[in-house]
UniProtKB/TrEMBL annotation:
Residues 1-155 form the Spermatogenesis-associated protein 20-like TRX domain. This is Thioredoxin domain-containing protein. Pfam families: Thioredox_DsbH (PF03190). It comes from the Bacteria. InterPro entries: 6-hairpin_glycosidase_sf, Ssp411, Ssp411-like_TRX, Thioredoxin-like_sf. CDD domains: SSP411 (cd02955). SUPFAM superfamilies: Six-hairpin glycosidases, Thioredoxin-like. The lineage of its organism: Bacteria, Pseudomonadati, Bacteroidota, Cytophagia, Cytophagales.
Length: 669
């Protein structure tokens, strides 16, 4: 076993038996490289990464390959989920080299940690050849490598405002600009299969977040049509686990059919919120079903005993990608018995299979009732029979060898999940969802917060790694969401505490954005800022949203001004290519139309809030109290006619209080 056997990261532990003399990222490895004047190989991946497993099997488990690596390099293994700061720096370097990013990410550094070359997956013969070539270049052409590395570092340390020419806009926030963003985004819609016009297809939740808010403002039917088409296909296709719920990371094709089968917490966290919002707007029962079943799956398979949620389920089991989720025809016949004939018509099950090696993967393109009617198998009892059949498959899967579980608990992803749960509770009103959300918040507060500061990772009862901006941003959003479904001011107090900490320790006054790393954290060769929204929104766009919402709730003009400063500088990118800044665009929607401030006062505050929350009103903040409160939006607010009152306000100017949700909705227009 190598040094990684002492680590807690499941990904690093996967490599603990490799003949490669791996180090974890840290001073020991970096000092060794300097002392021995050896180049560094940093290999970055994550536990559910299929091609990371392949490269490990082919190269890192091979003694001959390991001998070459050990002889010429100081080899460092990094879990990108534990150290997103390290990953961001060297992924940026790889892309500056003109190479498309991905994982495994293998980057070669000089002994001073400056990168000079990088690749993603390579088969073993190419990998060994590259190792020898890099060693030759290091020995015989060091000056050229050093010059090259210096250029990459100069690119990395350039401020984002300079790199992307970001300057404050004085044009304000207009519906016309939103229309331009929508038109630009729509040019890349897949209007036949949903999502964007590319493969592989990633869910990209912040795109739908923007489209839902854009529709709320403009009532543009094409925007809602694209949301519904996309969410329907994501809900019905093979990217969704039909047996127990939950979504895989992405579809390898453009049909949402065959996924990369790993299930990541961050995808499911965000999709909960999107499907819940879409349900509030459309009342489509398919969306409510997917939210309910995914929450059930999360509770049964991803929830740790201490109250935090695990990170991921692997794609592979029994040496086959997706084996846990796919079926041979004979297996289904045995499990389903008399239900097999109609079920096989529903899902086009065959001996040949619809995927590799005779396997079938469950996949629909239309509502199950419509598909059943088209196949001539619909009956009055169909829905009950269908759910029973899925339950049989779920039970049968329990006897299979499970995919690997990445059981580290990350503050950022748990924050995303808590927020997804708060939105799901607002849409569905199921008290068990609120309980799960509150328990998640208490876990964050009690287990991952020490002396008012967050930690990034938690495992085996211990926290590790100084938290990053993504952690603070996601947890602040979670706490703000928890306040708005509980009216417990504890969550606001904690949200403000964490927000003020980020302003003190992450904010760069020179260009008006937040660094990704804490000023008290480890210093790398570059201190990056995350501006572009991807599968997970950028931590800066999340912080800008947090500052806006907290500013509205707490009447904190300093928060509002900071949020406005951040968003106004994104104006040029928003109008040029909005698909990479859609979480920023969602915030733009809130600023382009008035934000409703809803204050509820009286004994039935929670009951009225619950009734009010069923409706899709994305541009609002909600505060409440059963008695009285010092919160600015609740000061001097009282019951009316002895009954709980709802105050509908805009910019702290309120209309006459009302006693019913129906009357309040009329005031909202």
């Amino acid at each position: 076993m190598n040094r990684l056997s002492k680590e807690t990261s499941p990904y690093l532990l996967q490599h603990a038996n490799n003949p490669v003399d791996w180090f974890a990222w840290g001073d020991e490895a970096l000092q060794k490289a300097k002392a021995e004047n050896k180049p560094i190989l940093v290999s970055i991946g994550y536990s559910a990464c299929h091609w990371c497993h392949v490269m490990e099997r082919e190269s890192f488990e091979d003694q001959n390959v390991a001998d070459v690596m050990n002889e010429h390099f100081v080899c460092i293994k990094v879990d990108r989920e534990e150290r997103p700061d390290v990953d961001a720096v060297y992924m940026d370097a790889l892309q500056a080299m003109g190479t498309r990013g991905g994982w495994p990410l293998n980057v070669f550094l000089l002994p001073d940690s400056k990168p000079f070359y990088g690749v993603t997956y390579l088969p073993p013969q190419n990998w060994v050849q590259l190792l020898k070539s890099v060693n030759n270049a290091f020995v015989n052409h060091y000056d050229e490598l050093a010059n090259s590395a210096e250029g990459f570092v100069e690119n990395m340390v350039q401020p984002e405002t300079s790199k992307y020419n970001l300057t404050s806009s004085e044009s304000g926030y207009t519906i016309d600009a939103l229309d331009q963003m929508y038109e630009k985004l729509s040019q890349n819609f897949d209007t036949q299969k949903g999502g964007m016009d590319r493969a592989p297809k990633f869910p990209m939740p912040s795109i739908y977040k923007f489209l839902l808010r854009y529709f709320d403002i403009t009532q543009n039917p094409a925007a809602l049509a694209q949301v519904e088409l996309s969410l329907n296909r994501i809900a019905l296709g093979g990217i969704y686990d039909h047996a127990v719920g939950g979504w895989a990371r992405y579809s390898v094709d453009d049909e949402w059919f065959i996924p990369h089968f790993e299930k990541m917490l961050y995808d499911n966290a965000q999709l909960l919120g999107i499907f819940a919002e879409a349900y509030s707007l459309t009342q489509n029962s398919l969306y409510a079903d997917r939210v309910t079943k995914t929450i059930s799956w999360l509770g049964s398979e991803m929830l740790g005993p201490d109250g935090g949620f695990y990170s991921a389920l692997d794609a592979d089991s029994e040496g086959i990608e997706g084996r846990f989720y796919i079926w041979k025809k004979a297996e289904l016949q045995s499990i389903l018995g008399d239900d097999f004939d109609w079920f096989s018509k529903l899902y086009n099950i065959s001996a040949h299979g619809n995927w590799e090696d005779g396997y079938n993967h469950l996949h629909l393109t239309n509502y199950v009732s419509e598909t059943a009617k088209a196949a001539g198998i619909y009956s009055d009892s169909f829905e009950e029979k269908y759910q029973n059949a899925l339950q049989k498959l779920a039970e049968a899967r329990k006897s299979r060898i499970r995919p690997g579980l990445d059981d580290k608990i990350l503050a950022s992803w748990n924050g995303l999940l808590i927020k997804g749960l708060t939105t799901s509770y607002q849409a569905l009103g199921d008290e068990s969802i609120r309980d799960m959300a509150v328990n998640g918040g208490r876990f964050m507060l009690e287990k991952m917060t020490v002396n008012g500061k967050l930690w990034h990772s938690y495992k085996n009862g211990k926290t590790s790694i100084t938290a990053f901006l993504e952690d603070y941003a996601a947890v602040v959003e979670a706490y703000t969401g928890l306040y708005q479904i509980t009216f417990d001011t504890l969550w606001l107090t904690e949200a403000v505490r964490l927000t003020d900490y980020t302003i003190s320790n992450f904010y760069d006054t020179a260009d008006g954005y937040f660094f990704f790393t804490d000023s008290e954290g480890e210093a790398l060769i570059a201190r990056k800022k995350e501006l572009f929204d991807n599968v997970i929104p950028a931590s800066n766009s999340m912080m800008a949203q947090n500052l806006y919402v907290l500013g509205k709730i707490l009447d904190r003009q300093d928060y509002l001004d900071l949020s406005d400063k951040m968003l106004s500088k994104m104006d040029k990118i928003l109008l040029a290519d909005v698909q990479w800044v859609t979480n920023w665009a969602a915030l733009y929607c809130q600023k382009a139309s008035p934000t409703a401030e809803i204050a509820i006062v009286g004994e039935n505050a929670d009951e009225l809030r619950k009734d009010f929350d069923r409706f899709f009103i994305p541009n609002k903040v909600v505060v409440g109290t059963e008695t009285s409160s010092q919160l600015p939006l609740l000061e001097n607010r009282t019951k009316v006619n002895g009954k709980t009152a709802i105050y509908v306000c805009y910019d702290k100017t309120c209309q006459l209080p009302v006693n019913s949700v129906e009357d309040a909705l009329e005031q909202l227009g």
